[in-house]
Amino acid sequence: MKMKNVIAIAVLLACSAVIKAQDPVVMTINNKPITKSEFEAVYKKNNGKEVNNASKSVKEYVDLFSLFKSKVYEAESLGLDTLASFKNELAGYRRQLAAPYLTDKNTNENLVTEAYERMKWEVRASHILIRVDETALPKDTLEAITRANIIRNAVMGKMPTSSEISNYDKLLKNTTEVSKLLKGKDSSLYKIKINAIKNLAEYYKNAKDKFQDIAPKTSDDPSVVDNKGELNYFSSMDMVYQFENAAFNTKVGEVSPVVRTKFGYHILKVYDKRPNRGEITVAHIMVKMPKDASEQDKANAKTKINELKDKLKTMSFEEVARQFSDDKQSSDRGGQLQPFKSGRLPKDFEDAAYSLKNNNDVSEPVLTPYGWHIIKRIDLKTTPPFNEIKNELKTRVSRDSRSQMGRNALIARIKKEYNFKENLKNRDEVAKELDTTYLKATWKAERIAKLGNKEIVNLGGKSFTQNDFAKYLETQMMFRSPTDVVELARSFYKTWVEELVVNYEDALLEQKYPDFKNLLREYRDGILLFDLTDQKVWSRAVKDSAGLKDFYEKNKNNYLWAERADATTYKCLNEKVAKDLRKLLKLNKSEKEIVETLNKTSQLNVSVENVTYLKGENKNIDANWKTGIVATDIKDEKENKILVIVVNKVLPQSPKLLTECRGMVTADYQNYLEAEWLKYLKDKYKVKVDETVLSSIK
Question: What are residue 649's DSSP bridge partners?
């Protein structure tokens, strides 16, 4: 036995020597080894795959890399890699990185084609949402699906029976939130939900549109109060995949089956399907009108939009938009908006825009909840050719819930690759141990101990037993209506096997794919580096108010206001308005009084801007850098207006208050903290480089 141990140790030492020879240490940081492969992988990723071994850049990269690893080691020394937040974040990144490896590429290609074909169409639908979290307790999920089915039946004309309402009542009282509230003598939520079910017959009787009139009474979507569940038009990739499937697979005028998404359960009614209207680019001239506008405000807005419509007879659309549009974000661009698709903007606006047949066509004034608009069509793009957007669609599909189909194909492949075997007889032995206690969520996995823990599944030589399956079944328990428990167990078996297969492959990714292993290590080190830098520099600079204030006081002369002028600019429609305005200024009328007086005949006569300028920001202010009314009118060629300027006061050069320059001071303070921190790291972590190994990097 001793001789066997000696031989085993010798073999291990020999293997270790071979590995070291194949992957030598290129440097140590405080005696911690960094292998050539790790350094080379990071270097090539950041500097290209071809490396000149005589290149100065390799040696220069040693400093960057060693500093990076020193920060990682410092983070580890502080225990940041043991925090639950770090572990959770890294696990999240690993799931993202693993996703492309845990799906089938051919299936994904078909999903890409399907997505493209659907992009050619738009669906208009309404929905009722029964909200339930993906991780909800079984009793909460059961209440939600029961409520969804009752509501769908009612929309279809089948009202709930007294027995169904009674059964639902029990489920509702047992849910986590309602039961907690009832114990606290708060029955408000319970009454809302149960009454919504009890009153379905009344809702149905009084509804004109059986779906949209019932939706506000039953849907958990907060926006239903305003839109009655109306989602406007949408196309492929606009909704989660399960929802999209229901919309595209339901005929116009019909109601979908209940559909589960990450948001909960949905019931859809499809109202229309039409060819995709495409992506349109328009410009608009806008007259804003607040929701609480008075009748006079509404009249003024309508008068103004009609005046602007008349202006288009003598001025270009772009000129009118620049001078008069209330949408200041687009007016400088002649009113041009970002391209948009159906369902993004108010319906009246979209319909007016898409009804314009040709580029440069202009609409009549259109009223939306935001005010009045005149719209000009600039361009319209229909669905592009498949090859132009194929790569984009691939990326979107890989991030979409439809990738589950690729997962299913992967499962089939992995089963074959790892010689998947199953013993359904042993599975059924476990299933037969389930009884009505399982439906009451009181069954225990230990009940199957007498079966002997026989193997049910073998994957890659790894055995999964009856005990494993029983423990899984126990995690899936919830209160259920009477059903065949054996069949229920068999349905759970399918999900259990799928999870086993995917998890088995997932656990092997680092071994099978070196690129995956390297990338995951980069993410790990990157998260630690970010967390440590945030702790030592970024957040500290923001949270350390005393340190920031002290830094500011010592350096306040670096943050100076130059001499500034506080000015009011009156933009007049013409010289007559400007002349009348000057008369009012001489009478010391207020800005409000001036605007109200001059705009009595037209809302376009005068507008006002109050701005504090630095020198060089406004040539007109620069030329009149003193307090008072500028003596002469100024012609604004761009807006075709007459400007009357009043310089209210000239402010001398002075240090900015900390509140006025906090962003710049914080940035400088961060730089200061980082410099001090880097000095500390270089003193603490000693780097030794093996020049021979470094020079061998190719």
Answer: 566
Q: What is the DSSP letter of 239?
A: S
Number of domains within the chain: 5
Mode of pairing for the β-strands spanning 687-689 and 259-261: unpaired
Helix (H, G, I), strand (E, B) or coil at 262: coil
Residue 672 clears pLDDT 80, i.e. is over it: yes
Give 178-216 pLDDT, tens digit per residue.
Answer: 998 999 999 999 999 999 999 999 999 999 999 999 999
- 370 and 431 in a single domain? The answer is no
In this structure, the answer to whether residues 541 and 628 fall within a common structural domain is no
Q: Is the same domain home to 527 and 564? A: no
Q: Model confidence over 605-661: pLDDT tens digits?
A: 999 999 999 989 999 999 999 999 999 999 998 889 999 999 999 999 889 899 989
Query: Per residue in 609-619, pLDDT tens?
Result: 999 999 899 99
The answer to whether residues 647 and 660 belong to one domain is no
Q: Residue 148: which CATH number?
A: 3.10.50.40
CA distance 313 to 603: 18
Same domain for 490 and 538, yes or no, is: no
- Bridge partners (DSSP) listed for residue 613: 565
Q: What is the mean pLDDT of residues 502-527?
A: 91
CA dihedral of residues 470, 475, 480, 482 (deg, nearest 10): 0
* Distance separating the N- and C-terminal Cα atoms of the chain: 46
* Region label for 137, one of left (φ > 0), alpha (ψ between -120 and 50) or beta (otherwise): beta
Token pair, residue 95, equals 């799931």
Question: pTM for the whole thing?
Answer: 0.49
- Same domain, yes or no, for 3 and 132? no
- Domain hosting 325: range is 281-381
CA distance 86 to 76: 11
**Does any domain span residue 49?**
yes
Distance CA 534, CA 548 (A): 16
Residue 612: exposed, middle, or buried by beta-carbon count in 10 A (0-12, 13-18, 19+)?
middle
Residue 258: both structure tokens together: 């209940």
Residues contacting 420, CB < 8 A, separation 6+: 414, 457, 458, 459, 501
Q: Are residues 696 and 567 in the same domain?
A: no
Is the confidence at residue 10, as pLDDT, over 60? no
In a domain, residue 116? The reply is: no
Q: What angle do CA 475, 478, 480 make, to 5 degrees?
A: 140
Q: What is the pLDDT of residue 401?
A: 78
Q: Say yes or no: 214 and 147 in one domain.
A: yes
The reply to whether 86 falls in a domain is no
Q: Which amino acid is at 602?
A: S
Helix 485-507 / helix 424-431 crossing angle, nearest 10 deg: 130
DSSP 182-217: HHTT--HHHHHHHHHHHTHHHHHHH-SSTTTTTHHH
